[in-house]
Write the structure tokens for this entry.
Amino acid sequence: MRALYTAATGMAAQELNVQVISNNIANLRTTGYKKQRAAFQDLIYEHVRRVGAQASDQGTILPVGVDIGGGVKTVGTPRLMTQGSLSATGNDLDVAIRGEGFFKIQMPDGSYTYTRDGTFQMDAQGRVVNAQGNPVQPTITIPQNASGITINAQGQLSVTLPGSSTPTTVGQIGLTRFINKAGLQPIGDNLFTETPASGAPQDGIANTDGYGDMQQSNLEQANVEVVSEISDLIAAQRAYEMNAKVISATDQMLQSTAALFR
Amino acid sequence: MENTLLVGLSRQMTLERQMDVVANNVANVNTSGYKADKSLFQEYLKSGAHEDNFVGADRVVSYVQDRGTFKDFTQGATEQTKNPLDVAVDGGGFLVVQTPAGERYTRDGGLQINNQGQLVTAAGNPVLGNSGPIVFQPTDHDVSIAADGNITVLEGINRIDSVRGKLRLVSFAQAQALLKDGSNLYSAGGGAAAQPDTASKVKQGFIEKSNVNSVLEMSRMIEVTRTYTQISNLLQQQSDLHKSAIEKLADVPA
């Protein structure tokens, strides 16, 4: 009976749903994390009696047909790129983006990755790097004896040098945006890479031309809402159980047939 | 005499199909915009194999046939997602989707933007506006979708909304004539012509959930299983009757 396999697709889909939800909950406190959700679609249908078929030569048509569906499939796990809330940290090199755009990070192999996580540090050479020690683009080197780091809304990083009363601009943190930011590929470590689906990266300057602005001493929290995740989790678990019940009910029907005419 | 078997079998076959329908509904209990299917049965009269078994007017045997599955187009619950590209259609309207096979219709409003800036479904097919696909510019942000489907954005540093198109909503006088294509899409079968729909409203930041009523489906499932088992028992009794008849009638005394 088809119902067995249909219910199995339902169980597989809900299992994946729980995986996605649990990853969201696990990343509840991950800076710059964007939640995912599982998107489902119904599978193909067998049109046993096609609706609208001619029911007679008088032109009458069948008002309803017999359509038997084959279950459910996962079409994707799109990421919700909405703004996370900002939390003040007091750390000079923490930057949050309010609005569109990603920080651009150069990886050790020379390729670029993109992130919303603005937890930056200084490395031994004074460069501004992310938590993995990879430089933020364009590379900014802070002089050794500098103090009073400020980052303005455009991402300009200025410091106060000894013997000078006016701040000196040492560089500008850039932003990159994509026409389809949900099409970026996550590679872990809060980083994303460009894909054919995301479109080409467009580098720009914060607070101009639709790019977001930068907030120093703030970090962007994950956009996961724990209440909606928990209610989704309950719904997924119940859906899984119901599909399991369909399998056992179908099994009972098959058993009663198998028990006939012993 | 064999009619019991055949009548029982006709019911069991329709029950199996009904179980398939229930299983598909339950599998899609979390599918956005999914509309539940319901089974319809009808009596199918046929003159019996041995008509002399009956007297008078009782000369027909009544079988069961599944006449159709009708789609329950009632509104599903809407869930707030806060995603600016999620839309729920409030009313009887459908979104129009451009697929390689032609125009298709959907209630699943979990939309995305593709690498060309087009508004697409989760499967990547463009969603149509009143004048073709809706295309966003690279510097567009703060997408806003009005209740009538009008899509506006802020472009670059502009503080004035730019219009990017208007979602095309259609409805059908005979929605039952729509054919489920899978992938949350419907195609217009015979007798279904898409009419522009101005009565339906679009809600941005919401998703329409599946309208499968899980309690109803579970009770229907139990009903199907119990009926199926009862008929199996009936067939068993009929077989026993047969068996004892053969044994008793053909019992030649030694």
In short: The radius of gyration of chain A is 27 Å.
